Amino acid sequence: MTISELRADANRRAVQSIAHADPVWVDVQPAGEFLTDLPPRTVLHSGPPLPFAQLCGLHRRGAINGALLEGWAADEEDAAQQLSDGRIRVDSAMNYNTVGSGVGIVTPSVPLLIVADRRTGCRAGVFPAEGRFGGGFCGWGVYSPEIRDNLRWMRDELFAPLRPLLRAQGFPLRELFAEGVQMGDEFHSRQTAGDLLFIRKIIPFMQDGGVPADAQARLLRYFADTGRFFHNFGQASARSALLSAERIPYCTMVTAAGGNGVEYGIQVSATGRTWYTAPSPMIEGSNRVPGLDPAQQLPWIGDSSITECAGLGGILSAASPAVCSWRSGRLTDGAAVTQEMAQICTNPQLHVPALDFGAPPCGIDAVRAAETGITPVIDGGMISSSGGWMGAGCTRIPHLCFVKAAAALDAAATE
Questions:
Q1: What one-character-per-residue DSSP string does 280-322 give?
Q2: Segment 246-271, tens digit of pLDDT
Q3: Are the C-beta atoms of residues 316 and 350 closer than 8 Å to each other?
Q4: What is the mean pLDDT of residues 201-225?
Q5: How far apart are CA 273 and CA 254, in angstroms?
Q6: Closest by alpha carbon to 144, among 57, 84, 41, 61?
Q7: Collapsing DSSP states into helix, strand and coil, what is residue 71?
């Protein structure tokens, strides 16, 4: 077989990891328990890895606060010194079986929602939304005794009564994605339907599973009060599906993508967890918080574009009129974006009304993106340099990421 034929065959097999994924919520575990390969005294962050001194301010703040949360440092100065000299490590969340939206800070005591692909058994963990604290520690890198206590409460009290049922049965998620797309979600910037569908399904799941009534009440209050909590399940579902597509020889499909506010990077199946990076792009859009200074906006930071790698988010623009309104205000432009994405993707699992119920593309081909110059649209939130939400919009993964990946793939194919 030629290299092109080998790649086509590998990509067909890899995209089935997405098309037939069957995500199930199966547990809640501390990161240090779930990530068995996590080295001691390590703080994970979103995007490709950088030395502590080269991280953006939000990531440095988050790493310092991670050291304080874990009790590794006496104060901020001590934490910064240990992070600088390597006694405390920093690394990319997506170098492990996790994913971090926003600043994406993960340390051993942080609770992770564990999602398994029932078809392959691959598991991925993502931190939960932090309720009344919003982005809080994990999403914004903010630390206070109250935020610390809330994370511990979520780990030890909120989710604990649900763990035996999750372990025994699992809570299926696949149909929530399929129905949510029909209701206008693209599952990156919008999860309104997903939130509601989840609550509708979790109530009888807990009742039939014997979860104590007081625990049910606490969980339902959390889900009702925490907007976009389903976003975290979307990221973990995408990650668990894509894990089974890693390290397939000759496969050119993108298996991870994210930014750290300085660089944006992708990983490609055939080359494992090697990063191909470029300067992180800016998110643009009209949905901005009034009165905030646009100059304070950071370039893309966060791993939530893992959803685009699985065919959601910007790839699925045609599904969400609300998200289209943040761009041009025209639904037809959303359909045009999804149709454009078909030139660098392969197929199929969801059906979109705006595409006459056709299946949208999924599975980003790094070589096609490099050759055509067409790069994936990614939806996302604008984050300020001081931490906090400034609005929502979209951008594209830098073409240079794909050029570097394609060169490495070509070199590997001829070895």
A1: PPPPEEEEE-TT--GGGBPSPEESTTHHHHTT-GGGGGGG-HH
A2: 999 999 999 999 999 999 999 999 99
A3: yes
A4: 98
A5: 11
A6: 61
A7: coil
pLDDT at 351 over 80: no
Query: Residue 291, Cβ neighbours under 10 Å: how many?
Result: 5
226 conformational bin, left if phi > 0, alpha if psi -120 to 50, beta if neither: beta
Sheet strand arrangement including 389-396: 284-288, 389-396, 377-383
Distance between CA 386 and CA 61 in Å, rounded? 10
**Is this model's pTM higher than 0.85 or not?**
yes
| Residues 6+ away with beta carbon under 8 Å from 261 | 47, 55, 56, 58, 59, 280, 298, 299, 300, 301, 383
| Residue 320 one-letter amino acid | S
The two tokens of residue 5 are: 């034929």
Within 169-212, where are the H helices? Answer: 174-182, 192-208
Amino acid at 242: L
Length of the chain: 415
Instruction: With beta carbons less than 8 A apart as the criterion, state whether 151 and 260 touch.
Output: no
| More confident call, 194 vs 17 | 194
Token reading at 268: 């490609």
Beta bridge partners of 260: 301
Question: What average pLDDT does the structure give for the chain?
Answer: 94
Each residue of 377-410: pLDDT tens digit?
999 999 998 888 899 999 999 999 999 999 999 9
* CA separation, residue 37 to residues 48, 80, 95, 97 (Å): 18, 24, 10, 9
- Which is nearest to 390 in space by CA: 382, 402, 398? 382
Task: For residue 283, give the nearest of 296, 266, 295, 300 by alpha carbon.
Answer: 300
Handedness of CA 20, 48, 226, 111 (dihedral sign): positive
Asked whether 62 and 106 are in contact (CB, 8 A), the reply is: no
Rounded Cα distance between 127 and 352, Å, is 29
Q: Is the pLDDT of residue 78 over 60?
A: yes
